[in-house]
Amino acid sequence: MNNKVKGRLSILFMTVTFYMMVTTKYTHALGDYILEFIGLKSWTGDYSGIHLTVIYFGVLFIIGLFLVEKYAIEGLSIRRRNIFLIFVVLMTVFSSITGMTARHIKENSSGLLAIGYTSKDSNINYKSKFNKLVEFTSEFELTNYSNEKKTFYLSIDSPFYMKDGIEEIRFYTFDGKPAIFELESKETKPFSLSLDHYNIMGGRRFQNGGGSGIVEEIVLTNDQGDKVRLDRNYFFGIELNK
After folding, report:
1. Which of 219, 196, 213 has its CA nearest to residue 142?
2. Ramachandran region of residue 180, left (φ > 0), alpha (ψ -120 to 50) or beta?
3. For 43-56, how does the pLDDT look when each residue is reduced to its tens digit (9 = 90+)?
4. Given 31, 96, 118, 197, which residue has the most CB atoms within 10 angstroms?
């Protein structure tokens, strides 16, 4: 292998190992999937705690820096500034490919799996007195990536609710019917839910208290009973009744 190939491959190796540690809008760090595929943990907890992927691929990235220094900077006399520019361009290309691939998968997913959710800017706030909700607001955004209109019921869930045996938060009209939501094809729409517009059941109730945070999970259900969980940690969604 000649020096030019070694120099180019060293820059590519350095960039790839760094990108494996980057969490994108659509996916966990790609290194997470690689580690989990070979049977290693990517986090000490459930996508919480210490991010082990950063440790594993951080070591490889440092090795990549050494190889770049040896084969690209010293071997080919490439300036560090130019290497940095190449690094930025490659990172941009990798990010674009990841985004296009994720969107393509969602566009071709069946049923409610074609709907995507990201937790950025989402929120949920509630307050209860004597185990009854007196305040509730929640805002989040959903995107229909398919070419078909989607109609569904939705509820808000959380790993903490499931752990404590708490029912998911469900939304009904004031005459007691499950509230119906919809997204047109290729539509991204913000949802704003409150006690002013819905009768809200389930969720954590306090004698006197409340809470706030981001929306962890959203469960969508269609008229056929098919259910999909949209998890803030998993962009592609999970079919619950399969």
Report:
1. 219
2. beta
3. 988 777 899 999 99
4. 31
